[in-house]
């Protein structure tokens, strides 16, 4: 990722950290916030050409966990 580029995911993550603290988790945030986070993660992993392959791989693991947490809340 270029040095001056910040994907929307980074800004949203910062918002969640400022609201819940650096140790927030997927069970602590609201369902709507979790759904929004999943969308930002998907965008970064699947559609953002400025996110590196290594970052996409790491974010993919976070996305999988977030999707599972969201699915549990929807059930």
From TrEMBL:
Domain of life: Bacteria
Protein name as it appears in the record: Uncharacterized protein
Organism (species): Thioalkalivibrio versutus
